[in-house]
Amino acid sequence: MLRLLALMGLLSSLFAATAALSASAPSHLSGKSVHISWTDSRVERADDGHELSMTQTSRVKIYVSDKGRIFSQFDRSVSAGQARQDLDVSGGGNAVLNFHAQGNQLVADQISAGGARRVTITFDPSFTSCSINVVNGASGKRTRHLNLAKTRWLELVSITVTSTSCSVAAGNAFGN
Question: Buried b / exposed e across 66-75, counting CB within 10 Å, b at 16+?
Fold first, then answer.
């Protein structure tokens, strides 16, 4: 629990510190798209106390414009067949993945009432391949959230990232 609280503090500090950084991506990524995904196993508790085990898959399409602006689309789906999609420009608020450049990385922070997530995409020197790391943290207080279908309140009990993938491609992933 203390480790999660420390992680939350670190993520909050990092988010505040990186808000002042330019969102402009490295020039090697201009005009390219990055596709990332990860799957996590999670346990959530319903209001009646029943615990539900499920798998959530998250997919993010990123496009870096010729001017270095970062656009992203975040799709999530769970084993129960629910899905949600968010299309945003980085910097659109705490609840979305806010990407910024850090050397050969794109880093995204997402803060919610009950915790935070950091997604780090690390590129090879030529920016033609990549890998990702996803870290989830909890604030230490019990919070409830609506499921993806927005029909039921749940409390996140645990979350473990089980797989990741990352690829880089020329062109605009959004087809423009």
Answer: eeebbbbbbe
Please say whether the dihedral angle defined by the alpha carbons of residues 124, 130, 131 and 136, taken in this order, is positive or negative.
Answer: positive
Express each pLDDT in 85-127 by its tens digit: 665 555 555 557 888 999 999 999 888 777 889 999 999 999 9
Q: Mind giving me the DSSP string for 4-63?
A: HHHHHHHHHHHHHHHHTS--PPPGGGTTEEEEEEEEEEEEEEETTS-EEEEEEEEEEEEE
3-state secondary structure of 176: coil
Q: Where are the domains of the chain?
A: 2-170
**Against a cut of 0.85, is the pTM above it?**
no
**pLDDT grade, residue 21 (50/70/90)?**
very low
